[in-house]
Design a protein that fits this description.
Helix content is about 40%, strand content about 15%. With about 240 residues, the chain is α/β, with parallel strands linked by helices.
Length: about 240
């Protein structure tokens, strides 16, 4: 897309990126000069929590991942890691659908994990499912600024995610969750064990996650910043017309 972006750039007064990662990447690719670029993080509506997390009967914390079943999202990595720590109590819900789902269902069956892993498909009320959970995981090979993580932050969940794209602008490592490198299954297993076996750590990181959401990623600040950019662009255009 860079060629197309470069071709329309002269027509723009300002270019908004959803993460600092994207802004810096655009500068590296010489999409536009620095004075035209501005980062405004995605924001979503703040809502009252409606669901009490599922009680951890038999001490099985509930992990959730929300992502389409396609190459960059890496449900396979999560399933492989969990299969290797089957001595630790856990349950997993996978929300989403896609071309890789059948292969992953076969993997789960082959590993004898059908009683632990639920494939829920696409869901209309993801918010309630997040609020019922205890840990959110997203292991994408690449990302911009994933809304799914912001929704998990709103639900007060600790997060394990790959340190790609703008993810580290959402998740503070060792504070609101853990960041890992792509394909680092050993570290993933370690971080999963830490959170699965330590309820107080989950609560601490989940609280930090929700505080960060309330501070930086609600809808109103995004709306106000975006509106200001548009107003300034219109004023600048009007002055040129004079």
């Amino acid at each position: 897309y860079s060629r197309m972006e470069k071709s329309v750039q002269p027509l723009t007064a300002k270019i908004i990126t959803v993460s600092e990662y994207d802004r810096k990447l655009a500068l590296t690719e010489k999409i536009a000069p620095a004075h035209k670029m501005q980062t405004i993080h995605n924001g979503i509506y703040q809502i009252e929590k409606r669901v009490v997390p599922i009680k951890e009967t038999d001490e099985y914390p509930l992990i959730v991942m929300v992502a389409r079943f396609e190459v960059p999202k890496r449900q396979d990595l999560l399933l492989e890691a969990l299969a290797e720590i089957s001595d630790v109590p856990w349950r997993l819900r996978l929300i989403g659908d896609g071309s890789l789902r059948t292969n992953l269902e076969k993997f789960v069956a082959d590993k004898g994990l059908m009683d632990r892993v639920s494939f829920l498909g696409n869901q209309l009320d993801v918010t309630s499912l997040l609020e019922e959970s205890h840990l959110f995981v997203l292991l994408s090979d690449w990302e911009g600024l994933p809304i799914s993580i912001i929704e998990a932050m709103r639900a007060g969940l600790p997060i394990i995610a790959t340190n790609v794209g703008g993810v580290n602008e959402l998740v503070t490592d060792n504070e609101s969750g853990f960041l890992i490198n792509r394909d680092d299954k050993d570290l993933l297993k370690k971080r999963l064990k830490q959170l699965l076996m330590d309820e107080s750590l989950r609560q601490k990181m989940g609280d930090a996650s929700e505080r960060r959401f309330l501070k930086d990623f609600t809808f109103l600040p995004m709306y106000q910043k975006t509106l200001f950019v548009y107003e300034q662009a219109v004023l600048k255009s009007a002055k040129k017309g004079d």
